[in-house]
Amino acid sequence: MDELQMLRAFIAATQHRSFSRAAESLGVTTGAISKAVSKLEDRIQTRLLHRTTRSITLTDAALAYYQSCSRLIEELDEAHRRIMRQREVDSGRLRLAVHHGLISPVFSRFISDYHSIAPNVNLQVSVKSGAVNLYDGQFDMAMVPAALVDQQGVIRRTLYRSASVLVASPGYLDKWGTPKRLADLSAHYLLIHPDLRQNGSNSAELYEDERAASVVPMSSIDADEVSLRAAALAGLGIATLPEAMLHEDLSVGTLVPVLPHCCARNPAGEICLFYSDRELLPVRSRTFVDFCVEFFREGGLYARTGEADAAALGKDDAALCRPTPSDTAKLAG
Predict the structure, then answer these.
(1) Strands, DSSP E only, in 52-154?
(2) What is the pTM of this model?
(3) For residue 169, what is the DSSP state?
């Protein structure tokens, strides 16, 4: 008979002061409990229990032994519980909505690093360009700009804030020239996010040396960030884009900085992780939250806040869009 079985039988019999109740608690027969205790006594050559027709009690010699055995079994059971909780982390399905502007070479590393700590989680990623509803049953979490989830009651953790900078292709600048100040954009094609248009006009609000200013370009196109990047690469104009998605383009020279002392308020510059409930999260979801926070913390490329208060974010638009010395971006490599 296994020694652990004998110890469990002895502990249960002592706690319940009855072989029958001990047997019921362990799901075995009364005879099995009695046999296990007898074998244990034979093993250690010591009488452990006084047996009567009404009850059983510890012998004087067995008290310290019982206490030690109880601690041993409790520690073993706790080890079992810990490893079972760890197994829960590494299993199940996690449905994640991700903004299309985040899809970049480093997103592949993000997925790979997460898989290394949770190899059995079935991570299902859906790339989204618009608003995400966490209450319609399609997604467990969303990694998107702050404005794209507006349901009440969801938890929001800001992962990073990215500056919004002006860039253009070398070919465009060769043809149209390089502007030296914000007013020079009046002779250029401007590629902007729709939120930068002032009242639907051709005027756009930008910042020069941290001061807000309006500019009316020769012509403009508004679109989402992915489309603006494609337009800039095609040489259609000067684009305002989140710094986070430009590292590769700037590194290889397919896009170059324009007016480094200027920037734009960046609607997609604050990337957040959203989830619907703090208290009832499965363990795998809590692990994913912790992983995301740690992944974006590494390298110190962005200021990071905790669970953000919506009213506190976006107060300092100029500071938010100010280019940083890093000129690099976590999600772009």
Answers:
(1) 56-58, 93-99, 122-128, 141-145
(2) 0.55
(3) -
Q: Which CATH architecture has domain 164-263?
A: 3-Layer(aba) Sandwich (3.40)
Residue 100 corresponds to which tokens in the numbers above? 């299309």
d(CA 164, CA 22): 69
Q: Chain-centre distance of CA 251, in angstroms?
A: 27
Query: Residue type for 195, please?
Result: D
Domain-wise residue ranges, the chain: 3-89, 93-162+269-311+324-332, 164-263
Tokens coding 250: 């700037």
Burial 118-128 (b: 16+ CB within 10 A, else e): beebeeeeeeb
The answer to whether residues 36 and 67 touch, using CB atoms and an 8 Å cutoff, is no
Mean pLDDT in consecutive groups of 10 residues from the start of the chain, 333 residues? 90 93 93 94 94 88 93 90 66 88 82 90 91 89 88 86 88 96 94 80 84 90 89 96 83 94 74 80 85 76 35 34 38 40
Q: Which helix (H) or strand (E) holds 158?
A: strand 155-161
Complete DSSP assignment for 176-243: H---SSGGGGGGSEEEE-GGGBSTTSS-EEEEETTEEEEE--SEEEE--HHHHHHHHHTT--EEEEEG
Strands 141-145, 93-99: pairing is parallel
Do the two domains 3-89 and 93-162+269-311+324-332 of this chain adopt the same fold? no
Q: For residues 31-55, b (16+ Cβ closer than 10 Å) or e, as one string?
A: ebbbbbbeebbeeeeeebbeeeeee
Q: Which residues of 170-200 are buried (b: 16+ CB within 10 A; e: fewer)?
A: eebbeebeebeebebbeebbbbbbeebeeee
Q: Rounded to the nearest 10 degrees, how much is the dihedral formed by the CA atoms of 49, 50, 53, 54?
A: -80
The CATH class of 93-162+269-311+324-332 is alpha beta
Q: Which CATH number fits domain 3-89: 3.90.1150.10, 1.10.10.10, 2.40.10.410, 2.40.50.140?
A: 1.10.10.10
- The identity of residue 121, as a single letter, is V
Cα–Cα distance between 249 and 200 in angstroms, integer?
Answer: 30
